[in-house]
Structures are given as C-alpha cells and as structure tokens.
Amino acid sequence: MQSNKLSNLQPEILRKCVALLQSFSSSAPKLKQIHGFSIRNGVPLNNPELAKHLIFSYVSLSLPMSHSHRVFSQLQHPSIFTWNTMIRGYAESQNPTPAVKIYKQMHVSSYVYPDSHTYPFLLKAIAKMMDVKEGEMIHSVTVRNGFDSCVFVQNTLVHMYAACGVVESAHKLFVLMSERNLVTWNSVINGFATNGRPNEALSLIREMGVEGVEPDGYTMVSLLTACAELGALYLGRRVHVYMVKVGLHSNLHAGNSLIDLYAKCGSIWEAHAVFDEMERRNVVSWTSLIVGLAVNGFGEDALELFGKLERERLIPSEITFVGVLYACSHCGMVEEGFEYFRRMKEEYGIPPKIEHYGCLVDLLGRAGQVHKAHAFIQSMPVEPNAVIWRTLLGACMIHKNLALGEVARAELFRLEPKHCGDYVMISNLYASEGRWSDVHKVRTTMLSKGVRKAPGHSLVELRNRVHEFFMGDKSHPQTEEIYEKLEEMMMKLRLEGYSPRTSNVHADIEEEEKEKNLSYHSEKVAIAFALINTSPGTPIRVVKNLRVCGDCHLAIKLISKVYGREIIVRDRSRFHHFRDGLCSCKDYW
Questions:
Q1: Is residue 429 exposed (0-12), middle (13-18) or buried (19+ Cβ within 10 Å)?
Q2: What DSSP line would sit under 483-548, residue for residue?
Q3: Tens-digit pLDDT string for the chain (589 aa)
Q4: What residues pair up with 577 in beta bridges, in sequence order?
C-alpha cells in the first residue's frame, strides 16, 4: 500500500525536485537535501530528467566530480546535454583527463552524437592536459563532422593550440577565421605572450586596435606578460595608466600581473607600490613580490615579506617556497635555505618538487660547495633532470672544478644531447684551464651533431620601441655614434683602474684581440646606445638572453659610477642593479 502511494506521488515529487533544482540559489547543502529528498521519496536514480538537473547543479557548484559521476553511472541512455555537462565538469576540474574518456564512451554509444557544445568543453580539457596530439585528433573530427566553422569550436581550437605551445597553428587558425571575437584575440595574443613570442603578441594587440576591438582585463594581462618578457617598462607603465583609466587596475589577476611586470623590468619598488595599493591580495600577490624581490637581489627583503605572509596566517604555496629558496641562494644563506626547505615539508606539508631541489643545488653551488651539491643530487629521492645537472655544471664553471664539471656534462649529454648551452659551458671550463685541444673537440662534436650556439643579444627600450643588439653589431642606424661612445667608455674605465678580464674570452687568440672582443659584448653596445639617447641621470635597463660575463659585470659597475647612472641588467640568471660602482648581487652571480 505504502509502495503504491509512493509510486503515485513520484511524478509530482519529480516535478517538485526538478523545479527546485532549476530555481534554487547556489548552495551545496541545499543541493544535497534535494537529492536526498528525491531518494527518500522513491524517485529512481536512473531517472534521466532528475539526473540531468542534478549533474548540472553539481558541476555548476564545482563540487567534486565523484558526486556527478555517481549519478551519471546510473543512467542507461544519458542525453547529449548530460554527456556535455560531464565533459564540462571534468574540463573545469583539477583532473581534466576523464573528460576525454567520457567523450570516447559517448562516441562508442550509437544513440547520441556530439553537438556544437561538446567540442568546446572537450578542447578546454585537452588544453589543460596540454595534449596536442589528442587535440589534433579532435580537430580533425570537428572538420569531418562539420563543426570547424562554429566560432565557439574555432575559439577553443585556437586556445588549445596556444595552451599547448603550438602558437603557429593557433595563429594559422586565427588568420583563417571569418568571424573573430574578443575571446579569439585574447587566446592567440596570450599564446604568443606566454610562449616566448612577445613581439608577435604586441603586433597583434596593435592590429586589434586598428580593427576596433576593445581590450578587456585578459588582454591587458597578456600585454603585461609581453612587456615583462621584453623588459619594456615604459610601455608597461602606459598599459598601467590605461588600466587605471578604465577601471581594470582593481582586478586581482591584473594587479598580480602588474607586480610581475615591474619586478621583471627591474623596477621592484614600483612592484612593491602596486602590492601596497591592492585592495585585495591573494597568495599569488605575495608570491609574485617575494619572487620579484629575490631575483632582483633583495633576498633579505624577500624573506622579511615571507615572514609577514606567515603573520597574516596565509598558507604559502610551493611556488612561494621556490622564491624563498631562490632568495637564500642569491644571498649565500646556505643554512637558512635548508631550514626553510625543512619547514616547507614538515610545517606546511608541501612535498618537494624538482624545482625546490634545484634551488638547493644552486644554493650550495653558488656558495662554492660543489662537492656537497653533487652529494645532495645523488641523495635526492627524485631522478635529477637536466636543469639540476646544468646548475651543477654552472657552479663548476664559476668555481673552476673541471673533474666534477665533466661528471655533470656526461649526465647532460645523456639527458639533453643537443642543448647548446651545455657545450658552451664545458668548452669554457676547458678554456679556463688552457685545454685548447679539448675545446676543439667539444666544438667539433657540436658541428657533427648540428648543435649551434645561441648568439648573445641585449635589448634596450627607448621611446616605446625595443632595440636589439648583438656582439659587434653594426646594423643599427646609429652604429658610428655607438662605437665612438664605446671607445669613450673604455678610455674612462681604464682611468678608473679597469683592466679587461681576458680570461672571460674562451678562445686561443692574442690578448689584444681578446680585449677588443670584450669591448664589443652586446650589453656594452646596448649601454653605449642608451647613454647616447637618454638624458644624464636616467636609469638604463638592459635585458640579456645569456648570463653576464665577469668582465661585463666589472665594467658595468664602473660605468654606473663614471656616468652617474643606475643600470639594471636582467640576464638569464637574475637581475643586477648597478649603482655608484656597486651591484645588488654582491658578486653572488
């Protein structure tokens, strides 16, 4: 009797539950109450109408996908809406991989077919997975099924390729699109900006303006990323002014990007000002400034800020600790670095990643403890990667430890046999010991394997344009003036007691030729250009793609004193703030 009564009430209860699910305000407890009410009143778990709305509600609230999957697994024939909701849920979760599995299950079923909503959700999951092969396969399926002309599918294809680092494919699709919206522009611009192609990102932003497309906060973040990559501080400042004007500066994500911009352009106190003015901060905000202070050579300030973060009872992330360990490394604080490493594991329960081990290898290496660094690598519970061995090789080069350098080289040639920087470092180490026959062997090996040395270049921003210089570069319109200024610089430096460090020229040539080579290094050429084209007292900012050599480091310290300029150099390893003949790195470079 009771069973029949429940059976008769089921349609009414079902309608009531569906109505509640469609109208209720977002709340996990209320959702679970509705779900429980439906079960208690005998509504079958495999009812497709109830399941559809339950799954949609669980996904919309970003609850663990186990809730949605439990309901989904009861269904015999889910609708396309339900399949799409499951794919969307996994795409937006921490683990997007099951989205592909769900899609393949749907593909195997013969009663339902993907629609224009399926592929955007699926491609979003693949972008998170950074699985370009899977993405290319789905791309071909969209073409075969006639969805490649849908703007939503096109946008997620552009995003997928950009997120996977295949920016040429993203741009090719972008160019072929007959209809583009702001999402399309942002996807391809961000792809270039985050994959080391800042010039292309800036060109697209200019093109976007010509076409009358108004940027939003995401565009600004991509633009700031490109400016940071190039060290284009003045352009970044103009972007900041624009953001204030249109009210985008209060956006948390944009504020974090501004901190990153100023830190990467060497204007760390502007980064600090942005941080101080933020109405709302998250751990990313604190981490951005901690890392920024560390790489700019203000390690003690970085550690002090970390202490404030802890006093605010915020939980540092694994990236925060990378910044903290980096600060210790660049300040020579070995014991403190290992203590922070211990606290990260024991107090915060953060399992160390390869980046944290790399920081400790760098910490020991910079302090000259190369044998301890090697022993630490051998005791690591994870397999050391090429970056770890490269860090050790760099330390061996600085501290002239050839035997251990050869051990690191052997590991690197096994892991990444075509990385040009490793050949250059071991060649330079041999050259510093006068072993020219070994230098010749290394260079012969490079030629036989098709490995080419990346040429050093330096960037300087002037009047919203970035100028690029190479060693001995004579392609610039101001070449004659630049080389006259270089001669003047070298003469003034000698009067200050400068003597070229010819040991930094790793070639078997005469001393006079070595001195000439040193004077033409790209950072010196860039500084000469900046001295000509900026007013006295104006800070000079240079971005170098390689590590600054010892001779240039010494010369720039003296240039800052002789010409009364602050010179900020960002090299491959860190920032150097030169002022009054001193450097912020205290020669821990």
A1: buried
A2: HHHHHHHHHHHHHTT----GGG--SS--HHHHHHHHHT-HHHHHHHHHHHHS-TT--EEEEESSPP
A3: 444 443 444 677 777 777 777 775 557 777 777 777 777 776 777 778 888 888 998 898 889 999 999 999 999 899 999 999 999 999 999 999 999 999 999 989 878 999 999 999 999 999 999 999 999 999 999 999 999 999 999 999 999 999 999 999 999 999 999 999 999 999 999 999 989 888 899 899 999 999 999 998 899 999 999 999 888 898 899 999 989 988 887 889 889 999 999 999 999 999 999 999 998 999 999 999 999 999 888 889 999 999 999 999 999 999 999 999 999 988 889 999 999 999 999 999 999 999 999 999 999 998 999 999 999 999 999 999 999 999 999 899 888 899 999 999 999 989 998 888 888 888 888 887 888 888 888 888 888 888 887 788 999 988 878 899 998 778 899 999 999 999 999 999 999 998 887 665 555 545 556 556 777 889 999 999 999 999 999 999 999 998 888 889 999 999 999 999 999 999 988 889 999 999 987 654 4
A4: 568
Look at the chain and count its residues.
589
Q: Within a 10 A sphere around the Cβ of 586, how many other Cβ atoms?
A: 12
Query: Regarding beta strands 575-579 and 465-470, do their DSSP bridges make them parallel or antiparallel, or are they unpaired?
Result: unpaired
| CB under 8 A, 24+ apart: contacts of 488-493 | 489/524, 489/527, 489/528, 489/531, 489/559, 489/562, 490/519, 492/562, 493/555, 493/558, 493/559, 493/562
Contact of 316 with 340, CB cutoff 8 Å = no
- Residue 349 CA to residue 343 CA, distance in Å, equals 8
CA distances from 420 to 256, 358, 403, 458 (A): 34, 20, 20, 19
Phi, psi of 574 (to 5 degrees): -170, -175
